[in-house]
Amino acid sequence: MDRNQLQRQVALKRSSLFEQQFLDPQQFVQLEDLEDDANPNFVEEIVTLFYKDSARLFQKIEQTMQSRPIDFGKLDDYMHQFKGSSSSIGAIKVKNECSQFKEFCLAGNAEGCFWAFQRVKQEHHTLRIQLESYFQLRKQAGLVRHV
């Protein structure tokens, strides 16, 4: 496949991430605008940090949900942190699921929190797959330098 075809695929993949509302175009484009010769992989690095931080927060949420009695305030705080991280990369679907989780926390609904957390993790995982595909296409198209 030639470079032009790959670049078109990158553009289509990026558009589909926006159209399917995986990513907020305004937020994601702001991140992309920060890439330059000094930081050619900036967006991928930010996304990698997001996923590392997510793993830490998910572990804290799971531990808190297993404790008795459940500290819904602590759960809400952890999810608030995660929702903020999700917003910083423009992860729309993940952020929306975080809001649902937070509503169950406010209601003191442990079962609702459990099911909402499963949806948060599912959207988080789906986004990860989509973004990995996008970043791989960018590399193949030569749009990102290998450092």
What does this structure look like?
The chain is mainly alpha-helical and 147 residues long. Helix content is 79%, strand content 0%. The protein is built from 6 helices and no strands. The protein has helices at 3-19, 25-33, 42-66, 72-89, 92-107, 110-140.
User: How far is it from the N-terminal to the C-terminal residue, by CA?
Assistant: 23 Å
Output the radius of gyration. 17 Å
How many H/I helices?
6
Low-confidence stretches: none
Give the total of domains: 1
Shape: elongated
Tell me what portion of residues adopts beta-strand conformation. under 5%
Biggest sheet features: none
Overall mean confidence score, pLDDT: 93
H and E string: HHHHHH
- Classified in CATH, the superfamily is HPT domain
At the first level of CATH, the class is Mainly Alpha
**Do you know the CATH topology?**
Four Helix Bundle (Hemerythrin (Met), subunit A)
How helical, in percent, are the residues? Answer: over 70%
> Oligomerization state of this entry?
single chain
The number of distinct β-strands equals 0
Q: Which structural category do the helix and sheet elements fall into?
A: mainly alpha
